[in-house]
């Protein structure tokens, strides 16, 4: 449960950052970094489960084994492979094993919610629901699901008032759009002579907002690259287990 205590603080920090930085590329980068951390923990849980899953004892139902396989493989898009069986021999039903798989499911569901939040921030809003059933297996995670729900509510509060999905919602893109509109207004001002001082300020504002957007995109791009590197490592690890099974 130590990992969940850390994740709980991360979720709270993400909500705090959303309030502080508004909906921005900075926040998207932080959410992506948290996704990378959670992906690492997801794989760590999988590796921890391997020794437990190799114990001898009463055999598990094959349907249950196949269900567990699909859960681990689904994240990497290989759940439809034929004749794939990570756990060929029957496995014992143990509380430790159950806890690990349930904890992994909690992490996976939380990752899904973060992915949806990022999708809503970059593209357009979709419905997001926190599945309370996932967290009920661990009473100590009640505050975790509550914080996650607060994060989702805070996110959509930031999006409130944006009815046109084609309009930018990220702070950096809003700044650029505002500067462009101001510059357009300065130039197309109905034949009134240009105010050079005001025009210079508008151009400076556009340059500064464009620079902020460029820097934000660079940080976000780096965070996404690091995330995908971790995903590739995880996929290779799973494929290695499949090949050796």
Automatic annotation (TrEMBL):
<protein>
    <recommendedName>
        <fullName>BPS1-like protein</fullName>
    </recommendedName>
</protein>
